[in-house]
Specification:
The protein is α+β, with helices and mostly antiparallel strands. It contains two helices and five strands; from the N terminus they run ββββααβ. Helices cover about 10% and strands about 30% of the residues. It has a three-stranded antiparallel sheet. Strands 1-2 form a two-stranded antiparallel ribbon. A hairpin with a 6-residue loop joins strand 1 and strand 2. The mean pLDDT is about 75.
């Protein structure tokens, strides 16, 4: 599947596609936003997950205790 052709996928989904020719990474989710994609930068690398608890399980990921969860990790929006 090409990184720009997700129109044939039906239902709630979140996925990642890496183009081996260019190294470009595309994160996608369903058009209704049922399946979220959360992301953060860690040591120059992009880490992402469909649930926050997966990112929060990374001990090296700095988390500010007093910041709202939306400020700690980004969330892809349409």
């Amino acid at each position: 599947m090409d990184s720009g052709d997700w129109s044939s996928v039906d239902g709630a989904f979140a996925a990642a596609h890496c183009d081996p020719a260019t190294g470009a990474l595309t994160l996608v989710r369903d058009p209704f936003g049922v399946a979220p994609v959360y992301y953060a930068e860690l040591n120059g690398c992009l880490v992402f997950a469909s649930e926050l608890k997966q990112l929060l399980a990374i001990p090296e990921l700095p988390i500010a205790v007093d910041a709202p969860i939306e400020e700690r990790c980004g969330r892809c929006t349409l």
